[in-house]
Design goal:
Length: 683
């Protein structure tokens, strides 16, 4: 059952005043023509002299056949709401609320006493009115902090139009807040274990990491160091992101470039953050775990003003932990305030900030190899030295939306993300002989600045009996990356004669090992500026016989400018492309959908080809088909899919000596296979 306090959180509040009683059995004369349900309810409230509470978004796009005659308000409501999936509830004698039915198949029967006909004086018995309809998705219901549903019916990642997953011809998985809560998820990496075809990998040697350990995300075999926050790219953030202010996690499998631009073809991860609520809510959570882990989180939200036009939410987290590895610990401070302004019933604006400070001991990892064999060493052993590092991230965004009518709305968003990584000193294993590990000393710093803006216009219209959901949009991303790396030159050579390695005993390491007394060589100092523009259009069409077709196309323009700050040399490259996406879905039953899609993508590669050449863009195409099913009134969902994905023009690490910081371009990578995801609860 929906809670009344959740109604005004995100949508317009439509309020009609009255002083008459609803439950007195009075009849009213109605003459409401067929029209949108929202407008019909407005006229109903005026004719009945009632106070009516509802959220405009919950009835957006719905129509009613209207009504004509003399009847009670309850009978009139039942007829207006017939087939809509909405239900009414009496709050008091003069107030009624309209809200989604709590069940997917809810039957409501209105059996009124005979009413007197004013013209003949005789009694006229009106028939029982039975309403049986699918439940309507209400985002406020699922944003309720007390909601315990494992399955969320809708997602935005695949279409940007908040479409039911069972009606989306794409493979979209959603990890709800109840799953995150039950599993006590701390970071994004842990949440992604719930989705097939998704893994994470630690990567400290990546040239763009600045020496910091990143938890990169791998979807369908393709690695990405990018995820999305409410649809916005978070460049160089990782799967170790805090979950303190996360409402849910959406995973779109397959190429998503048509709506999001430069994305790896394996898919994308979209984090949905917690938004302000109109009803006060406060939570304090304390976690303890292995390796001296303790984590405290605070969640507070509610109205600032009495009329609830101004709302806030504040999430705070502090984490401190050790590791199974020597010299690896972590301290994490996270703050996320949000302010929402309900300017009018149809216009809202949201301001969001995030601050994250991480202080940790970096661990590059090292596998000791000698004569082609892996040597047996304790898993806790670290052949490096204590290497304190810091990562500081500041994110800010301003979003606004306006509802022109029941059918048309616009959203505009702007965000800035700045991340600074600093690794003043770290030591990593490089080579080994039978007695010693020879180590490389480095220092690194990096800065990633991302600026992005996006405008979406969504509309609903009918043509020749077909229902269309249209999306017109454009986006712009600027990613500004600066790297500065040094390698230490030590006096002691290893067996190969390399002068920049120090040694430590393989079987009985004594730290700090050979002290650093040499000089530093600045071997990588560069700036890369990438500008990305995109325009896209998408149409979702409902056809007869429960068929749905989706088609879209994107124009993508990418300009990359790279400057070597050591040699003052520059290189630039401009590429553009048009990429399509099509999908079809057949839903013969409410609990069964069959779908197929074809997607193309285009994106710029990261890295540099020796000596200073920008890598040309990559392209990809995917074919996918699958089956989606729901059981137990939508509480359990399963998706079985088979995909065939090919990416061409791949940038990989240059295997030649002393070129590990550069890339080479290979031909194509092919990924294919079945996937099965089951989410929900049986009882």
């Amino acid at each position: 059952m929906l809670k009344l306090f959740a109604l005004p959180a995100l949508a317009a509040l439509i309020l009609f005043n009255s002083a008459t009683a609803l439950a007195d059995g009075n009849t009213y004369q109605y003459n409401i023509p067929a029209q949108s349900l929202n407008n019909a309810l407005m006229q109903f409230a005026a004719d009945s002299n009632l106070k009516l509470l509802l959220t405009a978004d919950t009835v957006r796009g719905m129509n009613t056949e209207g009504l004509n005659g003399n009847m009670t308000a309850a009978q009139a409501l039942s007829q207006l709401l017939q087939g809509s999936g909405m239900a009414y509830r009496f709050v008091d004698g003069g107030t009624v609320t309209i809200e989604p039915s709590s069940n997917f198949k809810k039957t409501a029967v209105v059996d009124e006493k005979p009413q007197s006909n004013n013209e003949t004086g005789s009694d006229t018995t009106l028939p029982k009115v039975t309403v049986e309809a699918d439940s309507t998705y209400d985002p406020e219901y699922y944003a309720d902090p007390y909601n315990k549903d494992y399955v969320i019916p809708n997602a935005t990642a695949g279409t940007k139009t908040d479409t039911p997953i069972m009606e989306t011809p794409l493979n979209v998985q959603v990890i709800s807040k109840q799953v995150l809560k039950d599993q006590q998820v701390i970071n994004l990496k842990d949440s992604l274990k719930n989705v097939s075809g998704v893994t994470t990998v630690s990567n400290v040697a990546n040239t763009s990491s600045g020496g910091n350990t990143l938890q990169s995300i791998i979807l369908r075999g393709f690695e990405s160091q990018t995820f999305f926050r409410n649809g916005f790219r978070m460049q160089e953030s990782s799967a170790s992101r805090s979950m303190a202010n996360v409402e849910s996690v959406e995973v779109l499998k397959g190429a998503a470039a048509i709506l999001y631009g430069q994305v790896e073809p394996g898919g994308m991860v979209n984090v949905i953050t917690k938004q302000p609520l109109a009803t006060p809510y406060y939570a304090l959570n304390q976690q303890f775990g292995s390796f001296d882990l303790y984590r405290t989180t605070i969640d507070a939200t509610g109205p600032i003003t009495k009329n609830k036009d101004l709302l806030y939410r504040m999430n705070v987290a502090y984490e401190n932990s050790g590791s199974f590895r020597e010299f690896v610990d972590k301290e994490d401070i996270f703050l996320a305030p949000v302010l929402k302004w309900n300017i009018s019933p149809s216009t809202q604006a949201t301001f969001e900030l995030e601050y994250n400070h991480q202080h940790f001991g970096a661990d590059s990892g090292f596998v000791p190899l000698f004569n082609g064999n892996i040597l047996s060493t304790p898993i806790s052993r670290n052949y490096g030295e204590p290497s304190p590092a810091t990562t500081e991230t500041i994110f800010g965004s301003f979003n606004w939306s306006h509802q022109f009518s029941d059918d048309w709305s616009i959203k505009h968003r702007f965000s800035v993300n700045q991340q600074n990584n600093n690794q003043p000193f770290f030591v990593q294993g490089s080579q080994v002989d039978k007695d010693n590990v020879f180590r490389r000393v480095e220092t690194a710093a990096s800065q990633f600045n991302t600026y992005s803006t996006n405008l979406d216009l969504v509309g609903h219209l009918d043509t020749y009996g077909l229902n269309h959901t249209l999306l017109f949009g454009g986006d712009y991303y600027r990613v500004d990356t600066t790297l500065n790396r040094f390698v230490g030159l030590l006096p002691e050579p290893n067996p190969n004669g390399d002068p920049d390695l120090s040694r430590i005993d393989l079987n009985n390491p004594v730290h700090p090992g050979t002290p650093f007394t040499g000089s530093l060589l600045n071997f990588d100092h560069s700036n890369t500026l990438t500008d990305q523009y995109g325009l896209y259009v998408q149409d979702q069409i409902k056809l007869p016989y429960n068929l749905e077709v989706m088609g879209g196309i994107r124009y993508q323009y990418i300009h990359t400018h790279k400057k070597d700050l050591l040699s003052s040399t520059t290189s630039a490259q401009t590429q553009d492309a048009v990429t399509p996406r099509v999908g079809i879905l057949w839903q013969p039953q409410s609990w069964l959908s069959l779908y197929a899609n074809y997607v193309e993508s285009f994106g710029a590669n990261n890295g540099t080809v020796f000596p200073n050449k920008v890598v040309s863009p990559s392209s990809a195409e995917q074919f996918e088909g699958g089956i989606k099913t729901e059981f137990f009134d939508g509480r359990l969902r399963a998706t079985l899919a088979y995909y065939d994905l090919t990416k061409t023009n791949i940038a990989t690490t240059d295997p030649r000596p002393n070129r590990g910081d550069f890339v080479v371009v290979t031909g194509a990578v092919h990924s294919r296979g079945p996937e099965l995801d089951i989410t929900g609860e049986i009882l």
